[in-house]
Input
Amino acid sequence: MKIITAGDNCIDFYVKTGEMFPGGNPVNVAVYLRRYVEDVSYIGCIGADDAGKKLVSSLASRGVDVSRVRVIKNGKTAVTKVEHREGDRVFLGYSPGTNKDFCLLDSDLEYIYEGDAFITGFWGNCQNRLAEIKNHSVITAFDFSDKIHDSLWKETAEYVDYAFFSWPEEYDLRCIKDFMKLCYETGTKTIVVTLGKYGSIAYNGKKYFNCGIIDCPVVDTMGAGDSFIAGFVSSILENEDIEAAMHRGTESSTVTIQYAGAW
Output
């Protein structure tokens, strides 16, 4: 099994403690995938700075293939400022650095075509190549974060097999199900929405599936959604059903939120 993630990366800087952790949606997903999958690669751009070196060396130490990470000589690696508030992480600011100019090269696509699955997200700048990837029978997964009102999910739906959302509004089951149904009708094969303390819900056009949370002490919620995606996709690639995939995603998230930083 070979899975490739691509897109944005950053250093998460905790302003109160001065701690720095490598992060970014596809970066986190790649690391969490290594809990279940041996062959995982990350494609992205970093600056030729200490932050970029830290990010690449940290990924490599976790067994992620970083051979296709591009170093921009005069660029700066992205930084996200973070603060803890009552156990939850709050984003205070973001400097995109080299992420703003990242795109998948034709050579990257040839590499991705050899994989079993490709995972990216809302800030990954990969959406314009999804059609090509999908046409080569690679399973595609996309993290739309909490951007339920953005047009991107409509524009990419037919090229996304598994769409993940984090519900940003008040819990309203009917509203959530209506949104998921619309996503399916627009073209996405399976939609998964994470709901915080309410667990998660998935829809495949035939049935809604629900999965609760696992009670545990919460240290830091950074990376919870990314680890859910990693657990879910790895389970699907092992030909397990949606309920089993949701359960593995939940277990993966439970591990992540019990320590500081994404990983």
Observations:
- Helices lie at 25-33, 50-61, 106-112, 130-134, 152-156, 173-186, 224-237, 242-256.
